[in-house]
Amino acid sequence: MIPKIRIRGLKKAFGSKIVLDGVDLDVMPGTAMVVIGGSGTGKSVLIKSILGLVTPDAGVIEIDGEDVLKASPRRARELRGQIGMLFQNGALFDSLPVWENVAFGLLAEKKIRRGQARAKAIDVLAQVGLADNVADLSPAALSGGMQKRVALARAIASEPAIMFFDEPTTGLDPIMGAVIDELIVDCVKRLGSTSIAITHDMASAVRIGDTAAMLYEGRIAWTGPAAGLLTSDNPVVDQFTHGRSAGPIKMALRR
Amino acid sequence: MNAILGLVAAIGAAVLDAVALVGALTMFGVSGLSHIFRPPFYPRLVGRSLMEIGYFSLPVVALTALFTGMVLALQSYTGFSRFNAESAIASVVVLSVTRELGPVLAGLMVSGRAGAAMAAELGTMRVTDQIDALSTLSTDPMKYLVAPRLLAGIIALPLLVAIADILGVLGGFLVATLRLGFNPSTYLINTFANLRVDDVMSGLIKACVFGFVISLMGCFNGYRSRGGAQGVGAATTSAVVAASILILALDYVLTQVLFIK
To answer: Is the C-alpha dihedral spanning B104, B106, B110, B113 positive or negative?
Structure first.
């Protein structure tokens, strides 16, 4: 079976700092992969490279077997057009009301007329547990958890074949984090999407992932089932998932 | 020897940075302009930017123009009365306002108000990932954020300057007739006697260019801002300073092109 996303030898450096140093990763269709790793190890750079927001220095990024880095700009846009993204801080457009945020992608792709967009947005908001009375509010008027739900609604509104989640539970309390995780799992399963989530939150990783990968020193240090993250027997993964200061991962501390 | 090499290297690095910046600004401007003419178009966003740049800048531009015309009449009188040349005051006011002061002062005022707001808005969108989010929602940020603001700047500034011209002349008229005792009809006849269409048009052409420069610097600095609140603040400052300097420099260039034959 052709992986939905296939990455080979992906490299990216910012000046002298090497962030990705030959990442290889396969994400099979309909599966949910969780990428874990310390702060600054390149998790966000990895998904931004796939999205085309960062240009890699070398490597291959295939979506449905086609290399997006070698495709024409139009074809690359088409391939990446099937990706929905939930940003870490929501990245909601604060100049637009909630419903316009949710329907933004549909309006941009002209899949829907403006008159129908509000009704569609309210329908999608209901799927993430938000009532229609939030539709006309400004994103700034919402709590962090509600903003995350709106951002999730925006990401799923176009029913994307691929979904990326950048630290979906960061900044939320444990209960709201679990609620968001449930919504993510529900949306991904219902849409039959392939997903990649990056997170530091081990409970969240186990909840939303089928498979997991650990990014360390610019490469994938371990892959396996997400359920086995806490019992991997890999010293790097063990240190990270159990939050131990002693182990192979040396934090860049200056004393 | 090492000190000399270090100095040369530092100068070289600064020159390369400056060339890279000019290149990036040129590419940004050309790309933004080209998106004005290529679909999809965003008329609602152009309208919103017109309100931001034009309508909401109207009070500050109007007050600036009115008081400038008043001061100009007063200063001209104190100077010209020494040579019995008071009759030239009306012409001095109208030519100064339409050719120079209208477009330059309106440009500087709009730069401080709307240019800064543009840089702050786009800078905040950049550091909160909203510009990246646009890209993931099948929307080109250059087309959605930059092109409407460039177009609105090019349209709004001439309209503001036309109003500033009228108010500047009105300011001069009020001071001349109410404070200095000029005959109102004589003052108006003198005002229009030496005014040509070219004088007004040159000011409006300058305004188009200044409007483009204000929007360009606001968008360019905001779009490239980095590093959170401090980066947004720096982008805002850079946008206003760069636009102000460019307005004054381009004013000289345009005057040279438009009037020196």
So the answer is: positive
Shortest Cα–Cα distance, B126 to chain A (Å): 10
Name the amino acid, one letter, at A156: I
Residue A231 has, within 13 A of its CA and on its CB side, a CA count of 3
Chain A residues within 8 Å of chain B (Cβ atoms):
48, 51-53, 77, 80-81, 83-85, 87-89, 91-95, 104-105, 108-109, 154
Indicate the residue of A77, A85, A91 with minimum beta-carbon distance to B130.
Answer: A91
Domain architecture of chain A: domains with CATH: 1-82+160-255 (3.40.50.300), 93-159 (no CATH)
pLDDT tier, A237 (very low <50, low <70, confident <90, very high otherwise): confident
pLDDT at A244 over 90: no
Nearest to B200 by CA among B106, B94, B61: B94
Q: Is the dihedral of CA A110, B117, B157, B257 positive or negative?
A: negative
B139 touching chain A per CB within 8 A: yes
Distance, in Å, from the CA atom of B258 to the CA atom of B208, rounded to the nearest integer, reads 14
- The residue type at B110: V
C-alpha A19/C-alpha A41 separation (Å) is 6
Among B122, B138, B149, most A C-beta atoms within 10 A, so best to mutate, is: B138
Shortest CA gap B242–chain A (Å): 26
Name the residue in chain A with its Cα closest to that of B127. A91
The nearest CA of chain A is from the CA of B31 a distance in Å of: 16
Return left, alpha or beta for B181; rule: phi > 0 is left, psi -120 to 50 is alpha, else beta: left
Please tell me the distance from the alpha carbon of residue B92 to that of residue B95, in angstroms, as a whole number: 5
Element (H, E) at A11: strand A5-14
Q: Structure tokens of A39?
A: 């702060």
SS3 annotation, B69-82? HHHHHHHHHHHHHH
DSSP one-letter code for A217: T
CA distance B141 to chain A (A): 12
pLDDT tens readout for residues B133-163:
999 998 999 999 999 999 999 999 999 999 9
- pTM for this entry: 0.89
* Pairing status of strand A211-216 against strand A162-166: unpaired
Contact A51 B128 (CB under 8 A): no
